[in-house]
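Design request, tokens follow.
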């Protein structure tokens, strides 16, 4: 049976990944990272921005889910606030990609799942 190890702090997630690379075998040397948005229940245009990353190690799926802010897409253009949130998300994704690559992992997009929803904890 598989189980999840959850992180919300990218630094802690990266440290765990480093430990797993030295003491365990990360399945197929593959790690995943992606930027996702989800609808808010607060309004029809409000979106939550997350970075989600994960890898499989033994019987564990080690997963990062980092909330980076809210955006409100508009036909009038992108607000300065939305740009900042998206820049934070891109920097977080790049930090994780760089760390995965340093560890010799193959970086792929997407998420690891066992049939449950992406944001089910």
């Amino acid at each position: 049976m598989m189980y999840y190890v959850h992180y919300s702090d990218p630094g802690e997630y990266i440290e765990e990944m480093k430990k797993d690379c030295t003491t365990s075998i990360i399945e197929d040397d593959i790690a995943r990272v992606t930027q996702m948005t989800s609808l808010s229940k607060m309004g029809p245009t409000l979106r939550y921005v997350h970075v989600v990353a994960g890898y499989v190690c033994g019987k564990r799926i080690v997963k990062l889910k980092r909330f980076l802010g809210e955006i409100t897409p508009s036909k009038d253009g992108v607000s300065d606030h939305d740009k900042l949130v998206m820049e934070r998300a891109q920097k977080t994704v790049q930090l994780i990609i760089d760390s995965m690559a340093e560890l010799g992992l193959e970086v792929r997009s997407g998420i690891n799942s066992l049939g449950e929803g992406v944001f089910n904890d």
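Comment from the thread starter after seeing the answer: thanks! Residues 3-108 form a domain with the Signal recognition particle alu RNA binding heterodimer, srp9/1 fold (CATH 3.30.720.90).
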